[in-house]
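Self-study notes.
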Amino acid sequence: KISSRVAAMFAASGVDVNIEFIEPLQLVRYQASERFGPHHDYHATGESSVQGEQRAFTFLLFGSTLPPGQGGETHFPHLGVSVSPTLGDGLVWANVDGEGEPNERSLHEGRPPLTGEKIAINVWIADQAFSVGKGMSAAVVT
């Protein structure tokens, strides 16, 4: 249902996103002091993608609330923007520009919660259909 709702939201805003363009959802959980350092969600090269796709957009759906000042923010250093997680809210950004080139300004990080935990779901929207049936071996790190 989450993927369907995200696809419908994009379609309603005029961005043609078919549910088949949404990668398998990823649940993340950060406990106090855990973080995810600065990174981009786009694939720098075709070799870093699973099926040759590019992650055009990220939709981060928050599954917990941390009040401002309690950490756990999603921070965009190039933009000077930090968003505290609130249960049920979502944050959307473009990983590539209008020509499909990497958007350097999409650099972001998951700051550590000071107490409690941050729960979120990563919804990555690719530029082409993504099929689990084509294999996920490139997505698994051993």
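Second protein, same conventions, sequence then structure:
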Amino acid sequence: MWFKSVRIYLPMVYILALFQTGCNQNDRFVTVSAESVPKSVSIYVSGITPVTELVFDKEGLRIKTSTRAVALAGSGVFISPNNHVLTCHHLFTFPVITGITVCRSDGRCTAGEVLYAQENLDLALVETNFDLPTPYIRLADPRGLKVGQDVIAIGNPLGFEFTVTHGIISALGRDNLGVYNMTQSDTSINPGNSGGRTEERRVG
């Protein structure tokens, strides 16, 4: 498999489905994936960030300041009939954001704008300009989560859009990453499931 399993603390935006017993496991994964992928998006953020470097050249040892253009790939889910997308706050922490592009599973893309962000929960709400209503995820009451329940993640790991992976809830109420009351899962994910597949180039 091109990605390896990692155990991380999974933001709520990744938990797209909980499964109940009483049906074939493989069938329910197929069904939930088919229902959830059209409700998911890939997000591409570009920005500019300052960089300070210690360099040694003909002028001697000195500190050099420049800027870099940075590109991030992430993912999110539609959570309202108004095409609002729930994603991660850390996608939008560049000092200067130059563009946000949101792409649906049918290939349509549009510009996005951050309406709200909450750093301590690592969540952000993005407004999109799609001209057609999109199916959306109905968020469940998190008090119903139980350790051992099945979950799936749909994301953009390493640039592979709308990848589906499966795991279980490993623990609840984790607080020791500086983020409050998070859910831990062993679902296989990589940078890009939230945001983190970064490319940089010097521009100044």
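Instructor comment on the second fold: The chain is about 5% helix and 50% strand.
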